[in-house]
Fold:
Amino acid sequence: MKKIYIVEFPSNLGLKEPQPNKEPGVKHLPEWLKKHDLYNSLNPESIL
Structure:
């Protein structure tokens, strides 16, 4: 089986604002993925 590496890069760069002066919620994505057990399911070699 190939090793899996997760690279967390919660950046809004290049994303449109959902509403004027409202930041996209990408910065919360790593926390959400952990909360919903994606990281445990993938069993990564490393999280960067």
Observations:
- The two ends are 20 Å apart (CA to CA).
- The chain is about 25% helix and 10% strand.
- Residues 1-7+25-48 form one domain.
- Strands lie at 5-6, 46-47.
